[in-house]
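Tutorial handout. Part one gives the primary structure; part two gives the three-dimensional structure as tokens.
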Amino acid sequence: MGTEVENKMISGIYLITSKHNDKENGMIAAWVFRLSIKPQLVGISIGKTRYSHDIIKKGGKFVVNFLSSQDKDVIDWFGGRSGKDVDKMAKYEWLRDKTGLPILKRAFAYMECEIIDEKDAGDHTIFIGKVVNEKLVENKETIITREYK
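Part two.
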């Protein structure tokens, strides 16, 4: 974790899904941010040691799945184990849209992104994705870090 001050920063909590060849995975990320309106760009900061890091990098795409306060079980499941050890995807239902990547069926919104650039950020890589498809399924509020205990 970060310092006491860093831990006071408020962020949303999202499920990032990705695919490379036949391997699909999901991970919880709080470092997700808008970068540009035109073109519509989103950034995700992913730890280089995370199992999803190479899947995202090699697959060239990712989905930002929006979670609400009713999705704490999703956060616990995807944040509490590695896809290296467990097939995390088997527990939930998935949809497919424009990119063919897994989209959590119960996500209230999602953004499908194609990576257009990446930046080294110390122990993380910032993947910059162009939003190629997005959908608001239901009008809910994104869960934020201070709400999750």
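Part three, for discussion. The beta strands are 14-20, 23-29, 32-36, 41-47, 61-66, 94-95, 103-104, 109-121, 124-136. The chain has a mean pLDDT of 94.
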